[in-house]
Amino acid sequence: MASYDLVVIGGGPGGYVAAIRAAQLGMTVACVEKRDRLGGTCLNIGCIPSKALLQSSEKYEEAKHALAAHGVKLKGVELDLPTMMARKDKVVDDLTKGIGFLFKKNKVTHVQGEGRITSPTQVTVNGAGAAQTLDAKLILIATGSESTPLPGVETDEKTIVTSTGALALDKVPEHLVVVGGGYIGLEMASVWRRLGAEVTVVEFLDRITPGLDGEIGRQLQRTLTKQGFQFKLSTKVTKAQKTNKGVTLTLEPAAGGAAESLKCDIVLVAIGRRPYADKLGAKEAGVAFDDKGRITTDAHFRTSVPSIYAIGDVIAGPMLAHKAEEEGVAAAEFMAGQKPHVNYDAIPAVVYTWPEVASVGKTEEELKAAGVQYKVGKFPFTANARARSNGDAEGVVKMLADAKTDRVLGCHIIGPDAGTMIAEIALAIEFGASSEDIARTCHAHPTLNEAVKEAALAVDGRTLNL
Questions:
Q1: Average pLDDT, the chain
Q2: Helix (H, G, I), strand (E, B) or coil at 322
């Protein structure tokens, strides 16, 4: 029986990073992954393939509709969907192979198969051959999450799909209906709309992207509507009937009322994700769960069983790959006796539509609910020289700072490259910076990040370029 200091169950962003960090700290480590490739949902059927398609579809739309304004005239622009999909697959393949290289470099043992906890210090792996049992001083659960099913709507990954199927369609839908107005649905809808699909988003709540700052979410909806999105808010899907021509959905008002039908050829169910934690033998081993099906942990990511830890989507907090990575590093360092920390107020979130939306820290709604006195500074990209030069000036930077101390409490951006720009604010929050600190920091000209500086100036009512 193979024996290790740590066995990690799950080879996604949290699991593989935790395995590498633990090995760096001198532990013998095995990482168990049920897929035939490392990288988990993120690299295989999530973050990476979706961003590859978003990038490709942006280029296609730019070639068809935007380059002429720059003096670049093209004729006969055509979509080659098989090539686009092949490029996406190659990006995924290259990156997953890269994790295998990192495992070899750091002497992490990769065990392929489905891991199950059979005792607080043992993991049994069922793979292609005979089952094997791994002895472990410590076990880390990093199995991530799966798409939440919608009652009354059965997915087949052909006409009624999750994000997995939406990444692999063999033709552009004529009419795509997305059930769920969160970031996954909006990103996939953006891909297929750019490639020619009619898009309707059905959302149970009265707004899209419910976790975002309300003002920014409303602006995103207005922007997507201008791009051709149709929205049915405060609406629920109660039934999906497959036909020879596609799918007929039955919709009802969320508050109750008369039903209506909506026909389409593809339905994407994207109502959220749920922890993948109840099939691991964790409960049988004594691991405690909360009422939402998440594993409960202490501040060191240790579960109710001292030898078993958990991170990422299976525990409380935002279901984000980079959140899982930070927790994976911290958990490994706690195991090694170090004293790391994860600042959950400094974890950014990004919606990769175009324009992008990025957020870090508290929203205005959260500050109001907590009774925190705050100041707001805003700066539009229409007044940013680089955005205007690029011909991509839609959006705004919104900064929130404590009314008494001026400490930055949150920042919310809708605009070009918002996902990259938000890193400056994440660092500011990590270091406890004030809006004055950002305002006094010299930003290169002309850059998009000057909009962040101007928003910081706006907190004190002294913008220079507006």
A1: 97
A2: helix
**Structural domains of the chain ordered from first start:** 2-146+274-342 (3.50.50.60), 160-271 (3.50.50.60), 346-459 (3.30.390.30)
Q: Specify which residues 132 forms β-bridges with.
A: 125
Q: Distance between CA atoms of 130 and 118, rounded to whole angstroms?
A: 16
41 neighbors 14 (Cβ within 8 angstroms): no
Average pLDDT over residues 16-37: 97
Tens of pLDDT, residue by residue over 387-429, are 999 999 999 999 999 999 999 999 999 999 999 999 999 999 9
Select from 143, 201, 190 the least CA-distant residue to 167.
190
| Residue ranges in 124-235 assigned as alpha helix (H) | 163-166, 183-194, 214-227
**Residue matched to tokens 């001292």:** 306
Q: In terms of residues, how long is the chain?
A: 466
Mind listing the pLDDT tens digit for each residue in 292-341? 999 999 999 999 999 999 999 999 999 999 999 999 999 999 999 999 99
CB atoms within 10 A of CB 258: 7
What is the distance between the alpha carbons of residues 352 and 220, in angstroms, rounded to a whole number? 11
Residues designated as active site: 445
Name the strands in the sheet holding 408-415, side by side, starting at the edge strand that comes first in the sequence: 349-351, 356-361, 408-415, 396-402, 374-380
pLDDT digits (tens, 9 = 90+) for 127-160: 877 899 999 999 999 999 999 999 989 999 999 9
Average pLDDT value for residue range 39-51: 94
The model's pTM: 0.95
Residues 214/363, Cβ–Cβ less than 8 Å: yes
Nearest to 350 by CA among 318, 316, 315, 394: 318
CA-CA distance, 65 to 356, in Å (whole number)?
A: 19
